[in-house]
Design brief:
There is one protein chain. The chain has 169 residues and is of the alpha+beta class. The protein is 22% helix and 38% strand. The chain has 3 helices and 10 strands.
Length: 169
């Protein structure tokens, strides 16, 4: 199943396959790799994609799902960078924070993520694209990961709703 999100004009598609839960994992020196296909597009300037790449280990999918849930549930109190063995992606998570405004009132800034996508060209380059994600986007990604790891199923109301909206297909 694919996740598709429009993140402020950048269409992000993500598919994670070959995930293995803890009891199924047969470890080698690299762990259990997932096959990850993805694309980031915004015509005419952006068309970056990968097919069946080893981007995440299964245990990294577990960790990312937990980190997203911690962010959504306000259990993170400091910014966190989620990095992986393969450096294709980095998720810079910012928790909710309260700011004091001049007149003595407070403003709440909600959670966010800067998803950094590092480019490959004959190897990893120093170039990257940063994609901003708000609460709704973060929840969609978390729900998708929950579907992949088996915490949610296709009949889970959140998944049904995402399928009806075309976010999952």
């Amino acid at each position: 199943m694919w996740l598709q999100m429009d993140l402020d004009g950048i269409i992000v598609k993500l598919q994670i396959q070959q995930y293995q839960n803890e009891t199924e994992r047969a470890y080698d020196e690299y762990g259990c790799w997932c096959e990850v296909s993805y694309s980031f597009s915004s015509e005419p300037w952006l068309n970056y994609k990968g097919t069946n790449d080893e981007v995440f280990l299964s245990l990294e999918v577990d960790g990312l799902a937990q980190a997203l849930d911690d962010l959504i549930s306000d259990r993170l109190t400091e910014p966190v960078n989620v990095v992986f063995v393969e450096p294709d992606f980095c998720f810079k998570m910012s928790p909710k924070k309260e700011l004091s405004v001049e007149n003595g009132t407070h403003e709440i800034i909600d959670i966010s993520i800067d998803w950094q996508v590092y480019f490959w060209h004959d190897g990893l380059t120093a170039n990257h694209l940063t994609i901003a994600m708000d609460r709704e986007d973060i929840i969609h990604l978390r729900n998708y990961l929950y579907l992949i790891i088996g915490k949610y199923h296709e009949s889970t109301p959140e998944i049904v709703e995402m399928k009806e909206k075309g976010i999952l297909y």
